[in-house]
User: Fold this.
Amino acid sequence: PRKPIIAIDGPAGAGKSTVTKQVANKLGLLFLDTGAMYRSITLAVLQEGIDLRDQEKVKAIAANSKIQLFANPIVGQPMQVLLNGEDVTTEIRTPEVTANVSTIAAQPSVREILVKQQQLIGQSGGVVMEGRDIGTHVFPDAEVKIFLTASAKERAKRRHADLIAQGQVAPDLATLEQEIAERDRKDSTRESSPLIQAEDATLVDTDGLTIEEVVTAIVNLYEAKV
Ligand code: C5P
Assistant:
């Protein structure tokens, strides 16, 4: 039998990455940012200069790309990512990748390839996995399922702070809010495993909560179950 899995899903900018990492550290579990995998394939497609909607070519790129993820030793920084051996940690967070990732993530063949890799990484459990479809598709039998959300305004503010912390150019708040809303719309309305709260997930609205409060709530849920 595998060790327990915590699935953390939710819209862009809800604080999934920070919360995931801290919960994993508190409980001594591994963690995985699955969004970084979709971003990596998007970067590879953009670098090849092929049409993002050419599903055959995109599938070939997804099948032939080797993605490796590592915990970033720097506090507050996203996971380190190697794409075919090259460090793309910063490149997968550019506005160009962010604007196009939902188009790539909507393609069933891309999802099939990445979900298999995620299931392999999590097969023995002991992991906190964050994304959009972890509790609904990747590990529907996860012991703890969280749907993490916050108001659009709050999420735009957090994304703004994240981008600055990562040394990226941050668009103004109204633009960010619009971009986030557009990405959420695409992610929630796609046919293939859309962003949706699993029936058995616990909804955590993080507006007005500190990171610590959110982390403690999830740790408590885990300890009550395991
Ligand atoms: O989490 P992050 O915002 O980096 O995710 C980037 C994009 O990757 C999402 O907007 C979504 O299109 C896609 N994604 C997904 N399924 C996941 C994780 C991310 O479709 N499990």
